[in-house]
Design a protein that fits this description.
Layout: H1 2-5, E1 16-18, H2 46-56, E2 60-63, E3 81-84, H3 101-111, H4 116-143
Antiparallel strand pairs: 1-3, 2-3
């Protein structure tokens, strides 16, 4: 048993796991969300979490075929987990601004909406909504 506790924090098995459900504002705490709902993101993906964490300088490992055990939906969109090296061999944090796993999750949730893929999707959906509303108004006038 002593050998199991003496493993180095730099081992890939000792990296912290972050599942997209931890950051999802569509989930309840019982369903796996781990941060406040006002700071959570709508349907984050494991790839987005990986991009954000790698950009800040973490040692990141993406496991595409892993699933969160509480996730009932088996779609590809909900698959994946990100493993992040939080501590070095000596036990000190790899990045001093992120001493805990919660600080990493909050940073990821804060940064994911600013990704280019997110901002482009938002712009496209706004235009389609405006067109849809215009069409509804036109139909209403024709009925009268």
């Amino acid at each position: 048993m002593a050998a199991a506790t003496a493993t180095s924090p730099a081992d890939k098995e000792r990296f912290i796991c972050i599942y997209p459900a931890y950051l999802n504002n569509k989930k309840t705490i019982a369903e796996g969300r781990r941060i406040p709902i006002d700071k959570a993101v709508e349907n984050p993906t494991s790839t987005e979490i990986q991009d954000v964490c790698a950009a800040v300088g973490f040692n990141v490992l993406l496991e595409k075929n892993k699933m969160y055990p509480r996730e009932w939906n088996r779609d590809v969109q909900y698959r994946g987990r990100v493993r992040i090296q939080l501590k070095q061999d000596d036990g000190n944090p790899c990045l001093p601004q992120f001493p805990t796993r919660k600080s990493v999750m909050l940073y990821a949730a804060e940064t994911i909406p600013k990704l280019k893929t997110r901002t482009q999707k938002m712009g496209g959906s706004d235009q389609s909504l405006q067109q849809g509303e215009g069409g509804k108004k036109g139909k209403g006038k024709k009925k009268k």
